[in-house]
Write a structure and sequence with these properties.
The protein has about 325 residues and is mainly alpha-helical. It folds into 2 domains: about 200 residues, Cation efflux protein transmembrane domain (Alpha-lytic protease prodomain-like); about 110 residues, Alpha-Beta Plaits (2-Layer Sandwich). It is about 65% helix and about 10% strand. Helix 8 links the parallel strand 2 and strand 3. Helix 1 runs antiparallel to helix 4. The relative contact order is 0.12.
Amino acid sequence: MEAQQQNIATQRIVVFTGFILLIAKFLAYFLTKSNAILTDALESIVNVIAGIFALYSLFVAARPKDSNHPYGHGKIEYISASIEGILIFIAGISMISKATYNLFYPTAIEKLDIGILLTTVAGIINYLLGALIEKRGQETHSLTLIADGKHLKSDAYSTVGMIIGLAIIYFTGYAWLDNIIAISFGLLICYTGISILKKSISGIMDEADYEIIAEIINVLNTNRKDNWVDFHHVRVIKFGSRFHIDCHITLPYYISVKDAHEEIEQVEILMKQHFENQVETSVHSDPCKFDFCSICLKQDCKVRQFPFAKRIEWNIENTMPDRKKAT
């Protein structure tokens, strides 16, 4: 819960900063009448709206599990990211539409120097904030923070390109370039929105997250015990920043139920320590068979039928399938 509270505190900073940048960008637009700057200002509206909903979703996701939500409330983070992706896409379309209109019905551009200065400061703040919350989102596996971070960073990248374009306009006087720049970054913003939307839909559909699965397998390989003959049928279901690990462990067939339970508890403790208690596990034990002897690391086994041949390093290919025999 501590990680979730820190995520909420981080998102509060994002929303507050978003309001300040929104005011600064619209001030730059009213001073310059530049459509390129307006595209940046319109995206800031999306940033603030998406940030508020993201903050709400983090509050909901932090609620404890209950009888109606036995896996918690984390799935709302995917809904939040979906809405953010849609809003970003709509903002991009709006930018393209207005810039296209002004290609044929141009407006005069004024005070570009002040506009460039205000936009530059906003872009730097956006990048630093985006990098901060994206890193935080990756550390806590929060799609809401990752989506917000990528959004702010893409906003900063587009700001850099826009500033270069505005500087060219400032020195050349080619005002029509303003609309071309706005259309270009409108397309970029549409692409960002679609990317975030695809990621959130993948989470709603429980698409396999191979990065997390690889991390789980690495933890198991690093802390391998002799009794852990094999792991298979490893699956992960994500619920926002929390996730559920489901897997099968092959243990020596002759150990007691109590001993098997203790081995499973060791796996659960490892996962919770590594993922900072943002995980719950469901581990099913399978008894070993004699065809596992050649890969079994247990040297004091009194029922071994075949000599040890080689150590199998667990990986995505040999742990995800639901198999009962050694590979």
